[in-house]
Amino acid sequence: MFSIDFLFEGTGFRNSLSCSKTSAGTFFVIPCTLALPVNPSAGSDATAVNQAAPVVAADITNTSPAGKNDKRIEIVLESNVLEYVPELNCIESDAGVKLFFPDGSLDVLDPATVSWHSDNTQVAEVMANGAIIPKSEGTVNITADYQGLKNSVAISVCKGSIVKLNLVSGGNELKHMMQHQKARNRFSLMAIATTSSGRQYDVTEDKDMVWSSNNPDNASVFGGRISTMNPGRATITASFKGVKATSDVIVDNAKVMKVSLSKKQVLINDTAGMDTVALSARMSDGSTQDISDMAEWSSDNPAVAMACEGRIDAFSEGTATITVQYENFTDTIAVQVKQSNEPKYDPVFP
Fold first, then answer.
1. Rounded to 5 degrees, what are φ and ψ at 208?
2. Does residue 126 contact residue 96 with C-beta atoms inside 8 Å?
3. Rounded (10°) CA dihedral 10, 50, 58, 78
């Protein structure tokens, strides 16, 4: 068994550099994912990111019928200024729409139910789902039309470029990694491109990203996923559009000293419920590794419960014994499944 250490070049980047789209709209990359900058004042151990809240576009022209008792719509954007980076032609920004009613209430509309229009498709296009795709520098007016209610917003597109590439952890702490014939690529690196405006994008799986290892006999890389081979050292290099970043990988001879289960008995009070049990290995270097996904899990009564990689799923009332096997280690978990006493209601249709 081996362990692995990652030494990252550069600072100011943390794990979990990702964001999810909201109805209000937020930058993202397809197939990339927008990663927002870490707050420099938070220190090297900071995990928070600076993410501006979506705002209603300030430059709005409301062409809805006038009158205090009329409905109106407003376009919602993360920003009125978009970035066009030739090397990242997959950047998009989502536009959302709010519908305001005469009584002061509002509803967030599905952008796909709105008709969209760009008055300058050379600068930016707008898709049927409200996604705005910057094409070149300039200004453009984006218009939303919902059942005759219209709203427009002016957007500026500025040109940017990639100025830096950093490699960061794509999972949990990359302090140790064990090599095993059943092991998966449990650890990975993310390649984060920083543009001249300070925006950051995940380009790990971009078609133009090139990954390499100077010593694949010790550690190989494919798409940012690291596999260890033999004890030693390797340098992983990521190259994107002429910008490079490196990470050193150290593989050593850590051995498994002891294997244990987090619990030996499990009670699930729902025939559709589940529970989890961790299988841990104590290493010779003093570290502890979760090896749940490296072991074989089996059940003597799969009609009642089954297990896989530490997850136990219940199916019916009764008992089952889960057997966990890892190399020379074998242990069992006693599982009892009970029928839930909570009343279940069938839907009533008019």
1. -95, 5
2. no
3. 80
Q: List Cα–Cα distances, 231 to 5, 211, 252, in angstroms.
A: 11, 21, 5
For the entire predicted model, the pTM comes to 0.52
Question: Are 88 and 32 spatial neighbours (Cβ–Cβ below 8 Å)?
Answer: yes
Distance, in Å, from the CA atom of 333 to the CA atom of 299, rounded to the nearest integer, reads 9
Calculate the alpha carbon distances from 18 to 50, 251, 329 in Å. 12, 28, 38
Cis previous bond, 347, omega within 30:
no
Each residue's pLDDT tens digit, 42-62: 333 222 223 333 333 444 444
Q: One-letter amino acid identity for 165?
A: L
| Distance separating alpha carbons of residues 336 and 269, to the nearest angstrom | 8
Cα separation, 111 vs 312, in Å, equals 40
Written as six digits, the tokens of 270 are 């729902």
Tell me if 206 sits within 8 A of 33, measured CB to CB: no
* DSSP 3-state of 52: coil
Helix (H, G, I), strand (E, B) or coil at 136: coil
Neighbour tally for 84: CB within 10 Å: 19
